[in-house]
Each structure stands twice: as C-alpha cells, then as structure tokens.
Amino acid sequence: ALFGESQSRIVVSCSKEKLSEVENLIKSMNCPYKKLGEVKTNMEIKNLNLKVNTKEMKESWENGINKHFN
C-alpha cells in the first residue's frame, strides 16, 4: 500500500516476503529510501525511535483536520 505524505515522499507498506523485491525495485530506480520499522501483530509500528498504534494513526489521519477545527 502507498500512502502520500508531502514533498514527493511516500510510505510503502509490504509483507516481509515482498520486502526484498520492493527494495530491489526502489534501488533500480536510484531512489533513496529508509526502512522505518515493522507492523507487528499487536498493530503497532516499532523501531528504535517510534512506537505508534496503527489504529490511532489511521484515526488521526482520517479525522485530523476535523479535530483541528472543531
């Protein structure tokens, strides 16, 4: 899945089985990239600097503007 961010940045989510294939595709296009973390079975994204519940992230993304103005 692709999620638009800003300034030509995107977040790519893929299964572990497809990670090598996705990385090879990105490298073949000479695009810089960084693996941010993994989505675990408890629905959290974890790496050394981030621990975020994916349900909370989705809710914030879907309702952030409404919450800001209400």
Helix/strand-derived class? alpha+beta
Enumerate the strands of the largest sheet in spatial order, edge to edge or round the barrel.
3-4-5
Number of strands: 5
| Beta-strand fraction estimate | 15-25%
Global Rg: 14 Å
Overall geometry: extended
Low-confidence stretches: none
Q: What share of the residues lie within helices?
A: 40-55%
Query: Separation of termini?
Result: 30 Å
Q: What letter string, H or E per element, gives the SSE order? A: EEHEEEH
SS summary, helix count: 2
Mean pLDDT score: 78
Instruction: Characterize the largest beta sheet: strand count, sense, and whether it forms a barrel.
Output: 3 strands, antiparallel
Keywords summarizing the entry:
single chain; 70 residues; alpha+beta; 3-stranded antiparallel β-sheet; two-stranded antiparallel ribbon; 2 helices; 5 strands; extended
